[in-house]
Specification:
Porin; 24 strands; 50% strand; disordered N terminus
Length: 452
């Protein structure tokens, strides 16, 4: 997943009342704040107009792909926060419409949303957070963050994304019951996840499915026809419940965490039909995993790293260890001679070690081709010109399949909560590589946002 960093400036003003200096009795008027007043104080709204243009034509041997180059959408995203007594209610969602074909379908949300379609109305978060001294109880739909890495986090696998545009992702929360206990600099967390939802993926007729000679070829399991795969649904049953435990602390300037998980795998595997060798079943097996990581600073350097170990108890998937090491360096002195305020430069390397191959009977394909960060270098450079204007460059390269991506962008903030963002995305590599399949998807994007 790729994140865009935006900067904001908050202005604070202190009220001064000359009559506070006059001695004497004061009349205190108690006014009970209404619901609408509380909602307005905790409300943020974002209106986004999005346009993008593909720079190249694509080849289509099937006659089914959308060959257009220009696309646009509009999105309204409200964020509401209401607190009463010891409880905070949070809401976030969006209403969106665009001209992409075979992309939008349906409104609202349900606990088990298995549709790949982007919703016209999407509920992203709806939860209550209740405080009881050093303990917090969270009920509802909310994002789950585990890792500390900047660009790629092996530990952050428990996410659902709106991925019809696989580069411009939007995160969707998970239904959960969560408890957090705070003691000094340490937080203990337990999360119960009763529902498993998959991230949404692009339609087969869009450019993001790649240029395939056979449109029925699976995007997850190369060489297998999509028509021969039966996708099993992860039902809401006790045997499909997932559990996450995490401890994070600060120790002598080091941010540390450790986590354990048992539940539905975030990746699918392929099982052959014992009665028909040409038919397959796509399933998400149960797995167990442990992860840990650190982040610390030294002068103008920040260092971080994570490791994630996953085990498939029945051998339905690989056992593997995924890791990342990285650093961020801040330049804020000599860059002023080139009219910049600061530059934050981040470099990471992510790799994977397969400890045991998939071995269960009738299971023919593991999740290996779906897993990110197996042999990648990633980088991001953010240049802050001033409080209004920022530049960014992001890149990633896979050393195994030789595919790579470059992202160049600029962000300018106007008065009144209006900002303009413009980006270029470039892809290249062999046709069967992750980014190479999009080598004709180079594009220009622009966002006009109004926050109020």
């Amino acid at each position: 997943m790729f994140l865009l960093l935006s900067f904001s400036l908050n202005l604070y003003a202190d009220d001064f009342d000359i009559f506070d200096k006059i001695e004497g009795p004061k009349v205190i008027e108690n006014k009970k704040e209404g619901i609408l007043s509380k909602l307005s104080k905790g409300a943020d709204f974002n209106l986004v107009f999005r346009y993008y243009h593909f720079l190249k034509d694509i080849q289509d041997d099937t006659g089914e792909k959308d060959l257009r180059k220009d696309f646009a959408s509009v999105m309204f995203e409200p964020k509401l926060k209401y607190d009463f007594r010891n409880t905070i209610v949070n809401f976030r969602g969006w209403i969106e419409y665009g001209n992409e074909k075979d992309t939008y379908k349906g409104i609202g949300d349900e606990p088990r949303d298995n549709s790949r379609n982007r919703r016209y109305l999407q509920l992203s978060e709806l939860n209550t957070v209740s405080s009881f001294g050093n303990f917090e109880l969270t009920l509802g739909k909310k994002s789950v963050k585990v890792g500390v890495s900047t660009l790629y986090s092996p530990a952050d696998r428990f996410k659902v994304a709106e991925g019809n545009d696989p580069i411009d992702l939007k995160e969707i929360g998970l239904w959960q019951i969560r408890g957090d206990y705070f003691k000094n600099d340490t937080t203990y967390t337990l999360v119960f996840l009763p529902v498993y939802n998959e991230s949404k993926v692009p339609s087969k007729i869009t450019r993001w499915s790649g240029e395939n000679d056979n449109e029925s070829t699976s995007t997850e399991f190369d060489g297998v026809s999509e028509d021969d795969i039966n996708k099993e649904v992860v039902n809401i049953t006790p045997q499909n419940f997932s559990y996450l435990a995490k401890v994070k602390t600060i120790l002598k300037g080091w941010d540390l965490f450790a986590a354990g998980y048992y539940g539905v795998s975030p990746y699918a595997v392929l099982r052959k039909d014992v009665n028909n060798s040409n038919k397959y079943y796509r399933e998400h097996p149960m797995v167990s995993s442990i992860s840990s990581g650190f982040a610390t600073t030294y002068k103008k350097f920040e260092f971080h790293g994570e490791g994630y170990l996953q085990h498939s108890p029945q051998g339905k998937d690989d056992d593997f260890f995924n890791y990342v090491l990285g650093s961020t360096y801040t330049l804020d002195e000599w860059v002023q001679y080139i009219w910049l305020d600061r530059i934050d430069a981040t470099i990471e390397y992510a790799g994977e070690l397969v400890l045991k191959d998939q071995y269960a009977d009738n299971y023919e394909r593991s999740s290996r081709d779906q897993r990110a960060g197996r042999n990648n270098i990633l980088g991001r450079f953010n240049a802050k010109v001033n409080e209004k204007f920022n530049l960014e460059w992001y890149f990633t390269r896979n050393f195994d399949d030789k595919g790579y991506m470059h992202h160049y962008g600029a962000i300018y903030k106007f008065k009144g909560g209006i900002s303009l963002k413009a980006f270029f995305d470039f892809f290249d590599g062999p046709k069967d590589s992750y980014y190479g399949k999009w080598r004709n998807n180079d594009r220009f994007m622009t966002f006009l946002e109004y926050k109020f």
